[in-house]
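One chain shown below:
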Amino acid sequence: FGYEVGIAPQLLVWTLLRRFPLANGSLPFLSRLSKLSGETVSLCGRVGWYGVRLSVVYGGNDIYHRDRIGAISLLHADLSSRGIFAFLSDDDIERYRRFVLRNHESYARDVDRPALRREVQAARKLGYLSAGPQSSDNAASLAIPIRSLDGGAVASIVLSGPPVAGAESTLPASWRETCDEMSNLLRDATKDMTAPFAHLNPDEIVLKLPPAER
């Protein structure tokens, strides 16, 4: 027999997303980036030590990316959420590591891998995170942080497969300007616009996740 998720779980997802005015506020910027790059662009926000995909705009070049709105992952476990993770303070990264060890044992090995530390260092230097070439045409997925007043990342914008070759490439000026414009808008907005769950202790928010793949 086949089964399909009913309307009630979907309504719960949309109820959560409505807590993020950022989801709708970001759409003009995501649409602009999608038109500039031709690629699918999505926005990831933060809930505790997790990232949640809030918005998606599909690009004209996209033939396979079908990012699901409402998808949740640990901050280090997915490119979109690592765009936030990479710009946490070193103290917060260590606090996050302890959280993963306590609550998500199957993900603990990944959070200690040297490659993740190198990725964080490179992202801080470049100002964005690159997943490296994903296909034969040297396309690389990028996660660009959206920063708050204190300089930390409250969200990240992900371009899935833009025409940028490798981690040392420079973002096109129009892409950078669009992301900076969005960051500036958020700085002028209310605190609830940028991080509606920031007042909660992230250590006390524990969500159920599938076991990490090996």
Notes: The two ends are 29 Å apart (CA to CA). The chain is about 40% helix and 20% strand. Residues 47 and 197 are 6 Å apart (CA to CA).
